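Q: Got a minute? One more chain.
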Amino acid sequence: MVRPLKYLLDKKYEDTADIDLKSLPLDAIEGVSASSAKKLNAIGVNSIEDLAAKTVDELKDTAIGAKKLEKAIAYAKDIIAHANEPGIQEGIMPLEELLDKAYEKTPANELGALKINAIQGLSKTNATKIIKAGIATTIQELAQIDPTVLKDQGFSNYHANKFVDFAKMVMKHASEATAAPPSAAPEESAAPEEPAAPEEPTTPEEPAPPEEEWEKIEFKDKFDKDRAFKHIETIASTPRLVGSEGEQKAAKYIKEKFEQLGLDTVEEEFEFTDFAWKVLIRFFQGLKAGLIVIAFFLINPNSVSFLIGLILSVVVLILTFYTSIWARIFYKYQHAESKLVTIKKHKSKNIIAKIPAATSNEGAGCNVILFANYDSKSQTFSSLWRILFFYSILFISIAFPVGYISYYLFVQLGFTIDYNTVNVILLILAVIITAATIALIFNKTSNNSNGAIDNATGVGTLLELAEIHAKEPLENTNLTFVATGAGEMGLFGAISYFKAHESEFDKEDTYFISLKDLAQKGHLYIPGPVGFPPQLPCLEVENLYKKALKRRNIPLKEGSKTTIRVLSPWVFGAWNDDMIAVLRGFKGNRVGIGGHLRKLHIIHTKKDTIDQVDKEAIDIVGKVTAEVLKRLDLRARP
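A: Always. Here it is, folded:
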């Protein structure tokens, strides 16, 4: 007997005729991703029939996990059996393909009483939906329902049938395993010496769900801050502006380190122009300042010009929020050019290394992609001044139209408002926004910063995390380490990575974590909503960081330099790799160490050198992040 055909194929191929099964592409097999299919294609395995004729040993050079290959080959063989013998008798699938990994070892007499979320592929959200609707709570109950009941709850025909079928197959396993073996002698079966105590299958003790297990597990810290610091020292030994020799040396160093760990490492080159940050940003900044100045001269509430000024100030407000997250503009205008001004084309590269999950099957488990940009830059004004300029513009862009409207309403309601006082206040605001805008427009970028804090610290932490997981891969989680280029020039490394790989990831089980600015021991910094309208980062990961800190007895309150707290501010004006993930609808977070807020005055200056880095900050972020990865792995579906 073979597995049911409908669960061997990706659902988009479920209507394939038997005669065409052998020639289907490899990613038609359920659980075989497009990236794995490409790796197999590269060694001449191009069809399901090709794969069925292979062994795991013959495919070991593909860098695909042995467990994944084993499952893919088994599925391929069953598909070929269906093709050769249409209508072949179908059997039940192995228990490990029906249940989440946390429940595979459940005793047979307890299978039926497992909660329905133990079914592989049935998410917590959908399980809760079924339970709240009163349809089923346990696998035994799910096996007894008609799939149309799930369809009425909004489940697709495929998933409704799949979940019920999986429950039925689990109960079949339970039935076969608990069936009494035939007796050796009739008289013994008729009068057994010692009847077994009756079992109570209706109230078995269910294995604790993964969430409860996480609280009890003791994590062994293997993150080595000294190794990480050596990486930081090497990378921060020279400035690394895009296109510079320092940038190329850093990229070479990172690639060599990944390869020394035996990781599957690739370089992905990309191009971009400076149109977005050289032209568009300055254009919008200048436009806002110009509109504010014009609006100021139209303040007289007793003239038609006031209405024009009010409209202009509202336009400034809209432009401010629209341009609050430049990542959107960088994504859209990566390759844009102009006939009016000279635009330069730039090249950089991402260095990508992968560590497949140790035991999970392709398409199951989860994916975590860790980012850290390795380039650096210096500017006329430090990050501290740039943030002050930006928030000045933001505040005034809100205050100006509010002031306009308030002044008009007070006058119409008969209040006596001193016109000169209002003029002076608005004049001060107009002068401040104009000065801040001019400063940002002329904030020249150059190659005079070694970028130790920003962001050699992130890269050093990334490399050490790669080393400890190369030695001990996570069980159910595929890790990808991406050292991004051109992060300081507009996130073009992260943008290029998403444009090349976004289709490979499921938004439900893929997490992006950006390591950035690990300056000194202080507050753990996890930024909150991104842009306007606000788009939330992954609260699930943020809570795991909080849980990891709590387990380590690290205080979360504000206070001395030795305390750590978790912050979630609304992010405006800056840009970081995680923003691309969040804006593209993925689960993304940026993690830094909050002491970097006290270092803003040196970031993007020549003072950002290795002596500014606190090794203890690296240690905290590295160990806590390693624990968060483990916690994600424990909840990942195999």
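A: Residues 199 and 603 are 67 Å apart (CA to CA).
Q: Perfect, thanks.
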